[in-house]
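User: Could you check the structure of this?
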Amino acid sequence: MNIVKRKNSKGDKSYFSIEYGRNAGERMATGIFIYTRPKDQLEKNHNKEALILVETKKSELLLEQQAIGTSFIPSHKFKANFLDYYMEFVKNNVRKGNRHLNNSVTQFQLFLGKAFIAPVDITEELCKRFRKYLLSKYTGATPANYFFNFKQVIRAATKDNYWRHNPVDTVQSRMNPSTRLKENLEAEEYIKLLVTPCLNEEVKEGFIFSCYTGLRFVDAKWLEWKDIKENQLTTRILQRKTGFPVVLTLHPIAKAILEKRRKQLTPGAPGRVFRLPTNDGSNKILGEWIKSAGIAKHVTWSCARLSFSILLQDKNVDVATVAYLMGHTTSEHVNRTYRRHRPADQRSTIAHLPAPEELPYFLIN
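Assistant: Sure, the predicted structure tokens are below.
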């Protein structure tokens, strides 16, 4: 391992890199430089400290190489506070459109109730208690998603020799099926909402837009004008297989909402399409609006996405297409979560059962 010094094009600075060998990819730029001809004491001091920093960097890399295959962790790689390791992992691995990893560290901090935890305190028992905390707080797939990402971090830390054995290896992620079925809106209820005034036009138009696009609240809240081109919307949801965002062709109602909002734009206004309050605030306004429309259902913003899926499936749109429009890689999640749990009209459904034109005699007498 050698330290290589090269002058820049002007010749006034020399930059350092560290070479492992002569092949491609075996040289690492350090970003550290010294002044070729220091003009004053400040630049001389910079050069002195930069040379010490280069030697320190080389020493750290040598220790990392020599530690491979051993249980030793160089001190510069070891995080005394496991939360620091967790947050660094999140920073390096978070993907746009996937909030589970970032939210998992937030929930772990809330569970701990403190800003420090040593790696030695991450035990199987603590992991089980964290899982129990998530299950008591969330329903559906959310606790399983958060705990799965937590397990990813623990697995990475185990490979980095924080533990000899993975403390969460045998603790399985669990879903928490909700005892309350989510309500969905039927086609006629879409129409009711379109003609019913709402105290907050931002919430009304944002929710209806979600009903016709399947966007989650957070996607509607952060939707920007640059995401919309002609009749298509490029969502923040990335397809795992291709890495490309989901592109939706807009329904005429969704297009009409956008056209109305474009006319209301003021020069220099933020790039967001909707100026929505918080999720809780939006749901409170939504509840009053649903009530005034004469819809006797408990509707939250997530019902828009469920309704989008159900109404498309009611019109015999295949599940694979619905899954794509909602940003899912497979149809599994649509079949499990975004499907109809109760018939739209029980009478018409039951009427499909066989019956004679007249009631049998034993039912009349």
